[in-house]
Amino acid sequence: MKFPRPPIGTPHMIVYILKRLAIAIPTLLLLIIFSFLLMHAAPGGPFTQERELPAQVLANLNAKYGLDQPLWKQIVSYIWGIVAHFDFGPSFVYKDRTVNEIIAQGFPVTLTYGFVSFLVAVVAGVTLGAVAAVKHNTIIDYFAVGVSIGAQVLPNFVMAPILVIVFTLILGWLPGGGWRFSDPSYWIMPVIALSTSYMASIARIMRSSMLEVLNSNHIRTARAKGLPAHRVILRHALKPALLPVISYLGPAFVSMITGSVIVDIYFSTGGIGKAFVDSALNRDYAVMMGVTILVGALTILFNLVVDIVYGWIDPKIRY
Amino acid sequence: MKLTTALSALALLAATPAAFAADIPEGTVLSENQTYTFWLLDAIKSMDPQINTDVEGSDIVRNLFEGLYNEDAKGDLIPGVALSHDLSDDGLTYTFHLRPEAKWSDGKAVTAGDFVYAWQRLADPATASEYAWYMELMQVVNASKITAGELPPSDLGVKAIDDHTLEVTIETPLPYFPQMLVHGSTFPVRQDVLEEFGSDWTKPENMVSNGAYTLSEHILGERVEMDKSATYWDADKTVMTHLTALTINDNNQALTRYLAGELDRVQIPAGQYPRLKAEYPDEATSLPYSCSYIYNMNLSDKGPEALKDVRVRKALSYAMNRDIVVDNILQGGQRASYNWTHWATAGFVMPDIEYSHWTQEERTAKAKELLAEAGYGPDNPLDLTLNYNTDESHKKIAIAAQQFYRPLGINLTLNNMEWKVHTDRMQNQDFDLARYAWCGDYNEASTYLDFFTSYSGHNNGEFFNDDYDAIMKESKTAADPQPLYTQAEQILATEMPFVPIYHYAKVDMIASDIKGLPTENVMQTWYGKDLYRVAE
User: What dihedral do alpha carbons A169, A174, A177, A181 form, nearest 10°?
Assistant: First the structure.
């Protein structure tokens, strides 16, 4: 795609961002169209149930939700609803809720535990990886590697029930599930279950990238200049070592804040992750589309954020 | 002559009014904590009585709203909004006498007009209720034509004689008509509230309801909170002050939370009943529950040729080792079944089905013989597929069936699919064998037996039998339909259009201090107003 040359004096960064946002629109449109078609291709529909519905009732349901229209018309009016009114339509299954309401209820929940998990995973993962690299081949390194492998191989659907058995049933410290914004004790187990495997991945990426940076020329120079070890690591090694971690964090951040179906199922948070899976199983077309668009838009946005952060961290990258 | 009937149960109850709401034995010491927390597997799809279609949704609807009649712990009818009814000589016109003190949560009186509105709304195709067929099933005059869009809803056979007298006309006499009134889709709703708020009327801030509880909070997929209603006519005797329903999508997780004291009732996951019964004898319970589990067979033109041979169908049924299914796989007090209707259904007399008395060895031997006659055996194997929807127990039973059938020369290919795909395939006759379970809509055998009539909407295997249809039609007007039901079951046993496997049990952990739950009601219908917690 060719873009007009930016007028002289416009900062390149802004042009770059605008270009990327311009590409985002057709990308989202394609996402909507493909999801729409795939969804309708799946056997059964939102009103498929054990008892076949009387023809008139089914016709009315289809008319009510626009399913009697040709597919292209449905797509057009769906997109128009979003563009003109930011209206993602009514849920086909939860009949007293709109998609906007379902997302407005579930997304803040997953955003909260996802964001906290993200912070925990980044801080713990980066620290663990960096320490392991700096103390390469020592007992500390082995310990850090051990922890991250352990966290990686323990899937969250195994960890979640164990957490509840330990912290709720045996110790009685934490509520076994549910969600309260006002009470962080409800957040703890979801955050542990969600953050550990991300933390492990971050630690492993960080460790290998840090090891590579520590062997590079500019670090040798810094050391040769006689800089103290902590300055070499914090000022000169940490930033470049973070680059691979950051490219991992963009998609990881999106998948964390849009919720994990495992966390939602095991901790009954009422989050958007479970709503998404349910919508697919229930053929709740509107909710499925709404969440797909939400996840798609966030993915595009945070990939852009990652690229911008890249430029800030790595002086070699230019736009 | 007009019969001042009421059912015998109602007549009895008129003499002993103590049985309404929580019926607490003398000397019981109540706990200070009168709250009840129960488990939901999934998010509640709707709390609108005419829109709800789920069993779990019904548990909520039944506490927020009240219909003409309720059920007691034994499943017998007791007055709800209706105190009694008269039935005309021809058995077609019911006149219900409504309780004058029944109130909505905003203090207005519950009137016959509220029922008229709700029933018309259910049948009206504009409502697009997935339960519109229920009015038809109740045989209310013109229901089917209204749902088909041929007549306006105002032509429905239901009218308000005055505020407290409701008259319902049905098309054919239906002995079990009053039993059908405990179903949530017949509960009243308020026209003015619905018109004001539209589909938002079920939000806690808008909802006006007439049950023992009012909705205080509903977080989709997380929890439902209900408070005791001060305006409910029997509020004085309603002990439980608060009900909470927690959605927990994983049954094992729900069990852990029950054991941690966060829930008062939860289902026991398959296979864990014996262990829990040994460990918690006062809490683990298994009670008959009105559902029947089968492998349905496709007898339609699209089905396999082999299944059109009754010998093959019988062989499939005989070779199914039900004892292994109930004793080794489910282990929750379910009962092996050789017929269709759940054994504990009210008034149902279990027919004497011949093969149910044989030993499994005898059944298997007979199955081999029949298959050989039909031309199949280990040398000429029969290939069939079994479709089942995703579920751990369905899978285990399917694998067991594969093993039962293999020595006979039947190769069963297992075909696991999600529920919507499974349903779609069944409705399009795109299957050989399909796992299926049917749960009774009301406590009477016709809820099962109507299923296999040629005119039923659910007979996906297309078992068409004129004698069967004739018997079921005759049963609708018979003074005592039970002998006809027995005959119908015998036809099913002779023609074997499906493999009966087991009859359900409700296998739950129930906190030992919770009292007032149903004991002998195969529908397992429960009401928060009947519950109470004793001090321990």
Answer: 170
